[in-house]
Amino acid sequence: RLHDIVFACSQSNYSFTVTFVVEMRTALFLIFFDSWCSSEANIENRTFKGLFDNNTKCFNDGINLCEYGDHDSLIRNLEKLTEDYPGFARTGSIGKSVLGQDLRFIVISKNVQERDILEPMVKLVGNMHGDETVGRQLIYYFANHLLFHYNTSNFIKFLVDNTEFHLLPTMNPDGFEMSNFSPQNASPCTHRSIARKNNNRVDLNRNFPRVKSENVKNLHLLQRGNLQLLQRGRQIETQSVMKWIMTNPFVLSANFHGGAVVANYPWDSQFGGQETVNRVAPQPFLTADTKSFKEMALTYSKYNPTMFHQSTANRCFPGFGGPFKNGITNGAAWYDVRGSMQDFNYKFTNCMEITLEVSCCKHPHPQELP
Questions:
Q1: Kindly report the CA angle at 349 between 95 and 245, in degrees rounded to 5?
Q2: What's the pTM value of the predicted model, to 2 decimals?
Q3: According to the model, what pLDDT value does residue 178 have?
Q4: CB–CB of 173/195 below 8 Å?
Q5: Which residues form the catalytic set?
Q6: What are the φ and ψ backbone dihedral angles of 219, each rounded to 5 degrees?
Q7: DSSP letter string over 277-337?
Q8: 104-136 pLDDT, tens per residue?
Q9: Do 331 and 294 form a contact (C-beta atoms < 8 A)?
Q10: What is the CA radius of gyration of the chain?
């Protein structure tokens, strides 16, 4: 049987959604959080308010939500969390960007130095497209929120005590540094810029091994030769993320994008032909686990009314931003993408990942972040 406990903390346009899934003897956490949401926060018919102080829109949990900061400041912020909460947080690096910037992540758990047996590992990745910045901020806010409220919220304590979170705010810091935010209340927002790609002008979400074109045996077994073969010729950021994924037993994942408001599930590609936006004749390409993937995507969407009802689609670039029925889509039915990180996770490891498009504005004005 499948049991869901859904927790959403929100005030105004910001929320966290957490789903605890138990199926047979397998316990998995679906940890997702979204922006531009206006629902109240409920768990078992109880309402949680006060994630934000109405009188201080930009300041909450001791941080300023209305600023981005450069990559160095992001790293300092992550390091400060480890200093303030040494038993619960540690940072690490999965590698470097083309320009040598650190791909820094933070791990959060009740005993962050030693993982409990069968403790589920969940990862969140943001900003793989440098100009899609909301996920970068959300992941940092989420890390801070978990630690800040560990001793004041029984539910947050439950999550941290029973999950090992691996949070990578930015996969493409070089692209982020080239991006400029949109004017406040822009409609539609800037859809694409040079900052989308890494410093070698490569789209990192087209740079992972393609599901049908890699001649590698025993894909689900970590073998040094397999990993090196798969990494060959790829961007340094992609190689680092591939190694990180294939050397850790992650069970669930979300990667954050912008330009639409929709939860997207595998497959991303039809495995042939040209990449197209399939607006006239959608052609879904489904996995053997589509039922579970759709449940994950819909669970996220239905607790984000803006996503579920597609109420901000007017701010998205025409032809790309929906509307999407119930706020979900199969990747290939929407945008045929070969070499995506989402498909790589599912095919080459045991990790189930969905893609969360969380804002029509890829790089919104800082005042629109809360």
A1: 15
A2: 0.83
A3: 96
A4: no
A5: 357
A6: -60, -30
A7: B-SSS------TTHHHHHHHHHHHHHT-HHHHHTTTGGGSPTTTS---GGGEEEHHHHB--
A8: 999 999 999 888 888 999 999 999 999 999 999
A9: no
A10: 19
pLDDT at 34: 35
What is the distance, to the nearest Å, from the Cα of residue 160 to the centroid of all Cα atoms in its chain? Answer: 18
Closest of 205, 197, 252, 243 to residue 92, by C-alpha: 243
| Integer Cα distance of 359 and 256 in angstroms | 10
pLDDT at 311: 84
pLDDT at 7: 32
Alpha-carbon distance of 340 to 288, in angstroms, equals 18
Tokens 């073998």, residue located = 223
Q: How many residues does the chain have?
A: 370
* Token pair in block for residue 27: 């316990």
Q: What is the pLDDT of residue 38?
A: 30
Do residues 202 and 215 make contact, with C-beta atoms less than 8 angstroms apart? no
As given in the structure block, the two tokens for residue 95 are 């590698």
Chain mean position to CA 361:
16
Q: Quick check: 332 and 267 in contact, CB under 8 A?
A: yes
Distance CA 358, CA 300 (A): 11
CB atoms within 10 A of CB 362: 28
Q: Cα(361)–Cα(39) distance, rounded to whole angstroms?
A: 20
Count CB-CB contacts under 10 A for residue 274: 7
Please tell me the predicted confidence (pLDDT) of residue 85: 97
H or E stretch at 246: helix 236-246
Distance CA 151, CA 157 (A): 7
User: How many of the other CB atoms lie within 10 Å of CB of 73?
Assistant: 11
- Residue 370: the pLDDT is 82
Tokens of 182: 């949109």
Amino acid residing at 291: K
List of the chain residues with pLDDT < 50: 1-55, 218, 221, 279
Which pair of structure tokens corresponds to residue 206? 């087209």
How confident is the model at residue 216, as a pLDDT? 53
165 within 8 A of 253, measured Cβ to Cβ? no
The type of residue at 250 is F
Would you call 61 helix, strand, or coil by DSSP? Answer: coil
Q: Which helix (H) or strand (E) holds 17?
A: strand 14-23
2, β-bridge pairs: 23
Q: List, for residues 306-317, the tens digit of each pLDDT value.
A: 899 988 777 787
Q: From CA 208, how far away is CA 237, in angstroms rounded? A: 10
